[in-house]
Amino acid sequence: MKIRKATKDDALAIATVHVNSWKTTYQLLIPEDYLNSLDIEIRKARWKKLIADGSPIFVAVDQDEIIGFANGGQNRSESYQYDGELYAIYLLKEAQRKGAGKMLLCSVAKELKKESYRSMLVWVLNGNPASQFYQSFHPLEIAQKEIEIAGKKLLETAFGWPDLDDLIATCS
After folding, report:
1. What distance in Å separates the CA atoms of residue 138 and residue 159, rounded to the nearest whole number?
2. Which of 98, 86, 34 is nearest to 61 (CA)?
3. Dihedral pair phi/psi, residue 75, rounded to 5°
4. I need a surface site. Which of 33, 65, 70, 104 has the fewest CB within 10 A?
5. Short-list 54, 58, 52, CA closest to 110
6. Is 0.90 surpassed by the pTM of this model?
7. Cα 165 → chain centroid
8. Does residue 73 contact residue 105 with C-beta atoms inside 8 Å?
9. Which of the listed CATH numbers 1.10.150.20, 3.40.630.30, 3.40.190.10, 3.40.50.2300 matches domain 2-169?
10. In Å, what is the CA distance from 67 to each residue of 10, 64, 85, 100, 144?
């Protein structure tokens, strides 16, 4: 397995992982109608644009197939004193618990550090099994907020690393 930066040719594979991982990860949390309405072609167009814009996006490749991805950048909320944010990290269900998640998380953290970010947070939907994954990297629990998806009110928790160097130290 290897991690590399995404190219425009990866947009379809990233969109496929994105949609399929939402369907497996969130099946008990988000209404089924919404999950069934997720469209790979629409996501492909969004990922193609993000890649073209130069957003730091990494893919996990196993046997020449993209099995996961992660991306990050500037914190989208000014409410918290974290300058960087992990926007997304998704893996196909069969690729989970094999080390790709850690490699993707660390790749985003190192890229943000290289771009002069000092800290990073991530928002995780409550009930998401990946919560334990993030907690294994010893973040602080920063906040919770209510969001709405398909008419259903849900809670998200923000986990954060005030010093990217501390997170990166756990990557080796």
Report:
1. 9
2. 98
3. -55, 130
4. 33
5. 58
6. yes
7. 19
8. no
9. 3.40.630.30
10. 11, 9, 22, 9, 29
